[in-house]
Amino acid sequence: MSANESPAGRQPTATYDSAFLKACRREPVPHTPVWFMRQAGRSLPEYRKVREGIPMLESCMRPELVTEITLQPVRRHDVDAAIYFSDIVVPLKAIGIDLDIKPGVGPVVERPIRTRADLAQLRDLTPEDVSYVTEAIGLLTAELGATPLIGFAGAPFTLASYLVEGGPSRTYENAKAMMYGDPELWADLLDRLAEITSAFLKVQIEAGASAVQLFDSWAGALAPADYRRSVLPASAKVFRAVEGYGVPRIHFGVGTGELLALMGEAGADVVGVDWRVPLDEAARRVGPGKALQGNLDPTVLFAGTEAVEAKTREVLDTATGLEGHIFNLGHGVMPSTDPDALTRLTEYVHTQTAR
């Protein structure tokens, strides 16, 4: 059952009237809702304690550990939404891709996908492949009550970039070479990843996630024409696949100022904006009918309370008059961020926007 729509004859779910879901639906809110990308993770000492000695991918497959990590920032910061603790490569690992997350490096793929024969590595994802996700979300929704849980997945382009490059890249030369040099193989790769991503999001929604976010972290490496031709169709397929659930769909990328209109066109209800584009300008680019999420520069949190509040005020001012606004950072929380700065920031936004 969707957290965004209540079926006939039933009361809405506990999360339906939350400030977060109201903002996603572009409805009046009691205050601007706040959550932070990567809020569940490296900046929290309690996270480092419970993760000690446990590899990243293994930690994503332990339901009770996932539950504890996901709840930590909700307890500490009083944010308006939790985000499920996982990693974008989890569904790839679940279908048997030989990969690992190397500390200080990121996801590393043993056998990169470079030829049509390599596509055989990408089988369909079933709910049984990620039964630990269903279990963890069941535990979480019981604990969270009226606080919404955001599920998430990596977008087809970003997943393809890791799979083709074999790991993180600054230039994406192998991925772009395939996109330009063998567009048919590229399209088939992204289409297959769209199927896997859709299945992964469906598992999360059916288990109880109130909203989902599609992270296209590396889409900012693309020119708009290339994004429209070679990436947008696969992302749009993912958004269409989960449309019937009625949960809000958020789309986010880094360095995507030139792509904001196209990212909204892909089918999201909420478009995430990094810190490079003011929210009022982002609204103009995206067009009507979408809520926006963002967009404080994460590095501002290192500058002291007075500076944080001043820059936060700028973000809130540029959001004045938006159809819907969810306050967030323009990218994830940085590992060395003082957790107390996030707690103060959450309280400041709530206080400044109380209606």
Short description:
The chain has 355 residues and is of the alpha/beta class.
Unreliably modeled segments: 1-11
DSSP helical segment count? 15
End-to-end separation: 30 Å
Residue share in β-strands: 5-15%
- The shape, in one word, is globular
Give the quaternary arrangement of the chains.
single chain
Order of helices and strands: HHHHEHEEHEHHHEHHEHEHEHEH
- Major sheet details: 7 strands, parallel
Number of strands: 9
- Assign the structural class, choosing from mainly alpha, mainly beta, alpha/beta, alpha+beta, or little secondary structure: alpha/beta
Q: Overview of this structure, please?
A:
By secondary structure, the chain is of the alpha/beta class. A hairpin with a 3-residue loop joins strand 2 and strand 3. The strands form 2 sheets. Strands 1-4-5-6-7-8-9 form a 7-stranded parallel sheet. A two-stranded antiparallel sheet has the order 2-3. It starts with 18 loop residues before the first helix and ends with a helix. The N terminus is likely disordered. Helix 7 packs across helix 9 and helix 9 runs parallel beside helix 11.
